[in-house]
């Protein structure tokens, strides 16, 4: 049995996206705000994280910065997993504004993350996202305690949470090696 501690990244500097008119994955390059950095330092004090074996991180800047802070505070190595990236609102990588992101997110929510019969959507379905993240998690079932830094939507699919997961919060996820 492996205990996973899913830590959503700290608060990101989303304003950079609008300032530079970033598109697609370029929107995922923003670092944490000063408040976001402080959120992660506070999370690092959580006793549940003691004696973890390693940190596994999404490749996005906000998650990597979160992992780096935790690594420094807890003395753990970091492994980066591309498939821990956040939910993809636009599989064509063309969205370029908060408004478009909100439209895609609202459509996802209206359909509860499931493609309507016979339809294809721009966004990644809940099933595709969950399968992608679980495939990564399964690689770490040989460990006792693993910290994963990543994203709210990705973690929500694992823990069954419908509400937004707060920045730098810790969710527990246990999985048995079968």
TrEMBL record:
Pfam families: His_Phos_1 (PF00300). InterPro entries: His_Pase_superF_clade-1, His_PPase_superfam, PGM_Phosphatase. SUPFAM superfamilies: Phosphoglycerate mutase-like. Gene3D superfamilies: Phosphoglycerate mutase-like (3.40.50.1240). This is Histidine phosphatase family protein.
